[in-house]
Amino acid sequence: MRILVTNDDGINAPGLKVLEHIAEAVAGTGGEVWVVAPAFEQSGVAHCISYTHPMMIAELGPRRWAAEGSPADCVLAAIHDVMPQRPDLVLSGVNRGNNSGENALYSGTLGAAMEGALQGVRSIALSQFYGPGNAGLEDPFEAARNFGAGLVRKLIDDAPWDTGDYGLFYNVNFPPVPAAEVKGRAAVRQGFRPETGFSVEPHLSPSGRRFLWITGAKQAVHTGRGSDVSANLDGYISVTPMRADLTAHESLARVAEALR
């Protein structure tokens, strides 16, 4: 199997090394693992592409490249320039922090998986939830490291995949606990943390200029039964099937009626 690995935390991120190990285990003997990742951290860029300016790309070693662009840029670069043959699978992550709930909308990790799906390649985004249960571990990615390869194989072999215009991709989040405390895996919907969205905090520089810092919010907020955040907080690996199609299909009939 030929696997493309990327992320949004950057080419030197520890989570990328974890994902490389996962990819190598999944690719197997005779397989290929290619790394095309951002030269610098690109967290929060979602599905952004460098449409209005070129990006520099550099070969760092065999099958290892860094691009001065977004995670989606890296997928485009790999498929259409770097790799001599298309990948069979795109793996993005392992993100340092969760991409459950509304975080998924901002995530460059998911942006890469989304672009992979739009390019017709099976794609999975993987993220490691951080919390008191694992942040202090010698290896905070322990849950992802121990369960990642098995879960990816399971999705490849048994989960649905389609090749429609907006093909399925998967959002996987590992819970904020040691590997020994992972309770299992669950297919769940995307949750929403109420009243916990991003905001801004103003600061003045020593020269008197005004700057705004983006601020986050509490992450350990349950989002209801059957949702990704709650599954993670309860110790389960969450698996959420997604599409890039943003149409609110359940509202189409009502909108059509309103337009008569």
Summary of the model, kept short:
Helices cover 26% and strands 25% of the residues. It is of the alpha/beta class.
**CATH architecture annotation:** 3-Layer(aba) Sandwich
CATH class: Alpha Beta
Oligomer description: single chain
Total individual domains: 1
Account of the protein in words:
The protein is 26% helix and 25% strand. It is of the alpha/beta class. Strand 1, helix 1 and strand 2 form a beta-alpha-beta unit. The longest helix is centred in the middle third of the chain and has 17 residues. The model has no long low-confidence stretch (mean pLDDT 97). This is 5'-nucleotidase SurE. It catalyses: a ribonucleoside 5'-phosphate + H2O = a ribonucleoside + phosphate. It is found in: Cytoplasm. It comes from Pseudoroseicyclus tamaricis.
Descriptors for this entry?
260 residues, alpha/beta, nine-stranded mixed beta sheet, two-stranded antiparallel sheet
Produce the secondary structure layout:
Elements lengths: L1 E5 L7 H14 L4 E7 L18 E5 L2 E4 L3 H12 L6 E8 L11 H11 L3 E7 L13 H17 L10 E6 L9 E4 L11 E6 L5 E6 L12 H6 L2 E7 L9 H7 L2
Parallel strand pairs: 1-2, 1-5, 2-4, 5-6, 6-7, 8-11
Antiparallel strand pairs: 3-4, 7-11, 9-10
